[in-house]
Every structure is written in structure tokens, then in C-alpha cells.
């Protein structure tokens, strides 16, 4: 849902241009469908075993775990497209704007993007 909000944010910053909502809405829809398919395949074929020494919890032992990473990469690629266009709009249209709303949209969007990249590149090891 956060990605849908970012698509709407980009649409609003673009001056509500219909072409922008169509392009980024289509990219978002394709990514969501692909991610749902990948995660459903992952959940169907993963397998677990008991932890050694009788410790509680789940020990993932098999399945196409790469699909979890690919889903996250698709999310990141979608966000890169949105952030690139948003930054381009910021430089082109809002460079001299003193609006606190525009400043908040850019600050929060860039912060989210930084944390998303940080999570991908230093993220949790799934093994």
C-alpha cells in the first residue's frame, strides 16, 4: 500500500497529469502481480525442520528462497523509477518552492527510499 501512496504522491507532484498515473499505475500493478505470484510460489514450496538441540522456532531448509529477494528487488526497482521521476520534478518545478507540504513530500520520500536501499544492501540474510 505504501507504494500505491507513492504513486499518488508522484501523480500529485506532477500536476495531476493523466499520463503519469497511467504509466506509474501500470508499473505498480505489474510489480504487485509479480510479487504476489513469487511469494505464493515461495510459500507453497518452502520446507522447514526442527532446530538442532530442540530449540523452538522454524528452521527453513528448502524451497525457492531466492523469490523473496526477487520480490524485494522488484519493489526497489519500482521505487527507483518513482524516486527518479520525483527528483526530476523537484528540480524542474519545485526548486524554488517555499511550500512546507512540498518539502515534507520530498523529505519523507527520500527518507523512505534511503531506508529501502539500506535494507536491501545490508539486509537480513535469508539462509
UniProtKB/TrEMBL annotation:
Residue intervals passing through the bilayer: 20-45, 65-88, 109-126
UniProt keyword list: Membrane, Transmembrane, Transmembrane helix
Keyword Transmembrane: yes
Protein name: Uncharacterized protein
Species name: Mycena alexandri
Amino acid at each position: 500500500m505504501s507504494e500505491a501512496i507513492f504513486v499518488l504522491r508522484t501523480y500529485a507532484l506532477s500536476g495531476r497529469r493523466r499520463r503519469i498515473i497511467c504509466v506509474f499505475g501500470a508499473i505498480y500493478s505489474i510489480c504487485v502481480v509479480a510479487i504476489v505470484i513469487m511469494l505464493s510460489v515461495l510459500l507453497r514450496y518452502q520446507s522447514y525442520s526442527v532446530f538442532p538441540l530442540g530449540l523452538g522456532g522454524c528452521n527453513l531448509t528448502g524451497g525457492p528462497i531466492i523469490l523473496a529477494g526477487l520480490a524485494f528487488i522488484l519493489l526497489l526497482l519500482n521505487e527507483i523509477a518513482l524516486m527518479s521521476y520525483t527528483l526530476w520534478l523537484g528540480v524542474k518545478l519545485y526548486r524554488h518552492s517555499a511550500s512546507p507540504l512540498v518539502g515534507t513530500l520530498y523529505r519523507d520520500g527520500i527518507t523512505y527510499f534511503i531506508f529501502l536501499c539500506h535494507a536491501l544492501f545490508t539486509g537480513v540474510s535469508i539462509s
